[in-house]
Amino acid sequence: MKFKEVKHSIPKVDGKGLLKGASAYTDDLAVESALIIKLLRSPYAFAHIKSIDTKKALRLEGIECILTYKDVPRIPITRAGQGYPEPSPKDKFILDEYVRYVGDEVAIIAGTTQKVVEDAIKLIEVEYDVLEPVLDFEKAEGNKSVIHPEKEIYSMFPMGLDAKNNIACSYLDTMIVGDVDKTIAECDVKVEHRYYTHAQQHVAMEPHTSTAYIDVQGRLNIITSTQNPYHTRRIIGEALAKPLRDIRIFKPRIGGAFGAKQQIHNDIFTAIVTLKTGKPSKCFYTRKEVFESSFTRHQMRFDIRIGADKKGNIQAIDMQLLSNTGAYGEHALTTFMVAGAKTLPMYNKTTAIRFEGKVVYTNKCPAGAYRGYGAIQANFAVESAIRELAEKLNMDPVELRLKNCIKEGETSPVFTIMGEGGEGIAQVMESCKLDYCITRGRELIGWNEKYPSKQIAPNKIRSVGTAIAMQGSGIPLLDMGAAVLKLNDDGFFNLLVGATDLGTGSDTILSQIAAEAIGVPVDRIVITSSDTDTTPYDVGAYASSTTFVSGNAARKAGLNMRAKLIEEAAKALEAANKNDVIFEDCTFKLKDKSITLKELSEGLYYKFGAGMKQLIASGSNTSPKSPPPFMAAYVEIELDTETGKIDILDYVAVVDCGTPINPNLAKIQVEGGILQGIGMAMYEDVIYSKDGKMLTNNMMKYKIPNRKDVKKLTVEFAESYEPAGPYGAKSVGEIGIDTPLAAIANAVYNAVGVRIRSVPLTPEKILNGILEKS
Amino acid sequence: MKLKLNINNRYYNANIDADESLLDVLRHLGFKSVKKGCDTGTCGVCSVLIDGEPILSCQFLAARAEGHKITTVEGLGEKADEIIDVIINEGADQCGYCGPALVLTTYAMKQELKNPTVEKINHYLAGNLCRCSGYEGQLRGIKKYMGVE
């Protein structure tokens, strides 16, 4: 299909300004006079606060306010930043008399300088009753230490919250197709294994930042690095019992997010300090706070059983999951459900499926949203198990996947039974080029020549590994996004969207979509996004929703604007029938008469007398579908058998994301996702001391990939068109991160026959495996 | 303490604490292109040039900067454009938080590396971390700027 604006790689609309150093991020925009906010944080994994004395600290000159749990509203909330009713337990107070992990907030301190605030923190005297923490998630259920003994916590709908047993939610007896136990028992070949995935840190380059002030109308304004301004407004309103009309949230440019900024972090603190003092305030987390006191990826344990017939037809999959949500239950249920929902449909020829399990509280850093969102964890388990099944079947793992994977026109019962937080919606794959992705990737990596491995030196082996993945495109009938277009004199348009550009380029691709729909070059579009006062609602940037959900809103707004323009042009050109008016090259034509867009816009503003008007068009979008993007990944590694070290030589990804609206930006989404996945697969790990203190709490101890860590990434897109998407597009933001864990683990197995079922795939584990074998 | 800093070929008077980092002082003076990312001298987003060489301004005491020429991306002016263009033409700018420091360090690299190769580029820029891009897109662009095939 031919397009003029979409499917074109243009630079991001904000790119040049950002690289030239424009003041654009939250901290850049905070006023110099803003009070500095810091938090006194718990040194204990689990404790009850017996007493807090702030008198000495309050005497310091420059200290404006110190708040403890006695000074703030006691309203149970969830900081998750999801749709409403919220699918996470309401188990958090702004401050509480209990602290539930090392780094949990004890007091909020605000003063005129960072130094005085830091001095004040040292003068606050706290007496703790130290309690026995729950640090092992496999021992959390029914533990005698109850992490949430408070009575007020609740969930907005039944999700199996059982706080007295440390269970944040459970999902049982629902996601069942056929008789799994019987079917597996009857299978010729079966595998049964337990897999573990660890917590991971987002490490967005910009730490969480919030600044607040009271405007001339007496309203609370918060500028914040958030992925979802509207959810933030709702949660701040709820936490502080303020009407939403008194709150404005604005997201400026933000320095990466990856799910970290879906949750509410320091907005509550700036809001409450500014409301109490009447003064502007600012809270900029240190990197240590980002590590210790924001959110990680959910740690998970999978028990997987897969059964197949002799020919390699997969008959049944059973997945039992235990997930660790840490001290609070943000995203506990939904990451859990996505683990099943974004893996099980890939193998849709099964006659029996079961997926169930629980999410438990522990006294660790809370887990929250993180790119991949359950799917990356489950992908490790499922795609490792598929390789193990291929071994038993004595079958090429690529052939096994080709035989069993979902194809265009097909469906899976999982879509209907299970959604994100509740029931799902039936979906047929109208675009699915997964089989092409698998065969094309096989070619690109040279699988047939390289599989399984080749010894290239006495201590070096090169091998290949593979995994496939799916994600979603927003949450069906829960996510909604909207766009407004306004025509200006000089013939350009303001595009107002609630959607939230995290650095992904959504402002750019939404402009491209709107331009395509109106039929004007993209430079005629000026975008404003993510302001709860001036831009329309959008769910926010999560669940891979923006391109698909908000993109369709921009397309609808554009088509509506185009219709209005033609109607006004028809009047100006005195057309008997508006359908005779042709709009191209920014000019409306009717036989030998014409009027340019610029002339029309000026007429509507200044010259058409009684016909003068402001043209505004809008579009809202929600969808009963969440078309999955698909990907096949192949990795080539070089493994040192003396040290267990692996190097990534090439990582090949072939992706079906429908139409890439901006191919360059889509490619970077995939490349960036892959490298984050490689980091998690190989070395990123959140490590705690025996008493629950996070040891990997800075970037020297927590290594993220640098540019020397991967030799080559090879990303290609399949030709694909999703009928429900804007100009054929599906999502692309998350799919890239899902495969590296399993693909690299499989490559390790193919190299040395060592199966590692617990990531990260460290040299120690690999070497131990080699030594055990010999 | 009071000091006079030469930033982008202009002099600025600053009244600072003896233990203040150059990063904090530059941001107070309004050079918001210099970002704070990690507090440990690991991420590279606070990089500026001192007498043409890249340093981490979070690990550099402002008091030591007197008598040296400090350059931020604002000071590169049009010389930054060629670098910026090759990065944004790949879509590799992404969130942009590491961007100004990357542009500065790339500029310094061009002055310093006589026979650049991909390995040398990746080594030179290894301290400029980016969590968004996966680095490949940045490399595609920077190779063009450095004249590397």
What does it look like?
Chain A has 774 residues and is of the alpha+beta class. Chain A folds into three domains: 31-131 and 205-256 and 261-293, Alpha-Beta Complex (Aldehyde Oxidoreductase, domain 3), CATH 3.90.1170; 299-475 and 625-773, Aldehyde Oxidoreductase, domain 4 (2-Layer Sandwich), CATH 3.30.365; 480-621, Aldehyde oxidase/xanthine dehydrogenase, molybdopterin binding domain (Aldehyde Oxidoreductase, domain 4, 2-Layer Sandwich). Chain A is built from 20 helices and 27 strands. In chain A, the strands form six sheets. Chain A has a seven-stranded mixed β-sheet with strand order 3-5-1-12-9-10-11, with helices on both faces. Chain A has a five-stranded mixed β-sheet with strand order 7-15-14-13-8, sandwiched between helices. Chain A has a five-stranded mixed β-sheet with strand order 16-17-25-26-27. In chain A, strand 14, helix 9 (332-341) and strand 15 form a beta-alpha-beta unit. The model of chain A has no long low-confidence stretch (mean pLDDT 98). In chain B, helix 3 (81-88) crosses helix 6. Chain B has two domains: 2-75, Ubiquitin-like (UB roll) (Roll); 76-146, [2Fe-2S]-binding domain (DNA polymerase, domain 1), CATH 1.10.150. Chain B has helices spanning 22-28, 73-76, 81-88, 99-112, 118-124, 136-146, and strands spanning 2-7, 10-15, 47-50, 53-56, 69-71. By secondary structure, chain B is α+β, with helices and mostly antiparallel strands. Chain B is built from six helices and five strands. Helix content of chain B is 34%, strand content 15%. In chain B, strand 3 and strand 4 (53-56) form a beta hairpin. Classes of the chains: A alpha+beta (774), B alpha+beta (149). At the A-B interface, helix 1 and helix 18 of A face helix 3, helix 4 and helix 6 of B.
